[in-house]
């Protein structure tokens, strides 16, 4: 049997984690601002359903990667409060994963938005 209270409690904790991510993490705030701009541009350019699916998936992936990176960094800080070269590498790799994903999201965004701008204004 499913314990509904436990399910709701899990969602509550997850929601709190999301709020904390955007409240306290500077990079997450940057990702949020960029997402708002891209969504506004999407409405202005009248994205198709497919374009929305692609762009929103990219936004969700970047936010998720940022959340995992933040969790890894916080865990590392608890496990090794002082400087430790291996912990430093772990944190760098987690941050690198976000950078890779964010870079690809920018490329995808430029492809979608660039294509819309080309067809709207030059073709």
Low-confidence stretches: none
- State the domain count: 1
Binned, the helix content reads: over 70%
Distance between the termini: 59 Å
The helix/strand class is mainly alpha
Average of the residue pLDDT scores: 96
- Oligomerization status of the protein chains: single chain
The main sheet comes to: none
Strand content: under 5%
Q: What is the CA-based Rg, rounded?
A: 18 Å
What do we call the CATH topology? Helix Hairpins
Query: What string gives the helices and strands in order?
Result: HHHH
Binding site for ATP: 25, 73, 91-92
GO cellular component, one term: plasma membrane
Family: Belongs to the bacterial diacylglycerol kinase family.
Transmembrane segments: 30-47, 93-113
List the helices and strands and how they pair.
Blueprint: H1 4-24, H2 26-45, H3 49-79, H4 85-121
């Amino acid at each position: 049997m499913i314990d509904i209270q436990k399910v709701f409690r899990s969602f509550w904790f997850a929601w709190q984690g999301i709020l904390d991510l955007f409240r306290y993490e500077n990079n997450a705030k940057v990702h949020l601002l960029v997402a708002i701009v891209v969504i506004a541009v999407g409405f202005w350019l009248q994205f198709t359903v497919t374009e929305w699916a692609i762009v929103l998936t990219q936004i969700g992936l970047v936010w998720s990667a940022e959340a995992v990176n933040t969790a890894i960094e916080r865990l590392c800080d608890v496990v090794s409060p002082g400087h430790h070269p291996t912990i430093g590498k772990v944190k760098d790799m987690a941050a690198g994963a976000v950078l890779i994903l964010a870079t690809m999201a920018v490329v995808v965004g430029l492809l979608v938005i660039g294509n819309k701008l080309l067809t709207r204004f030059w073709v």
